[in-house]
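[job 4471] stage=fold_predict status=RUNNING
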Amino acid sequence: MDKANEKEVVVAIVGAGPSGLATAACLNRLSIANIVLEREDCSASLWRKRSYHRLKLHLAKQFCELPHMPFPSNSLKFVPRDQFIKYLDNYKSGFEIKLYSQRSVESASYDDRIGKWRIVARNTGSGEDEVYVAEFLVVASRESSEGVIRRLTA
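[job 4471] inference complete, writing structure tokens
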């Protein structure tokens, strides 16, 4: 791939669930440039697309708050799904998180020669590969992601 098509970033975060969003927000508060690469077409896709509508947080709200933004004081103790999604959307916009959705990370390798990560992501909207070169890589993919186990031949 042509180096002109590579995008240099300080931190690349893979996954736009609560952990990825929280990481990006904390970095933004420290003025550390970052991007979030998300395979789905939205942030918090597990909450939006794979949870039932009557779901509530199983822990009290004070244990589920993301850094630097408490839940509104009038929130229920066990926050319903739709309110949690709204909270995450407000968090994303409030901390000006740069989300690159529809980016399926195909590979990530550390280049010892330049001391940086090289991340190849498939833009599932356009079908093209994009290359990100980052000083730091944070993998914040969800616990329910499908694992990939490579078969090796001897």
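[job 4471] summary: DSSP finds three helices and six strands in the chain.
[job 4471] exit 0
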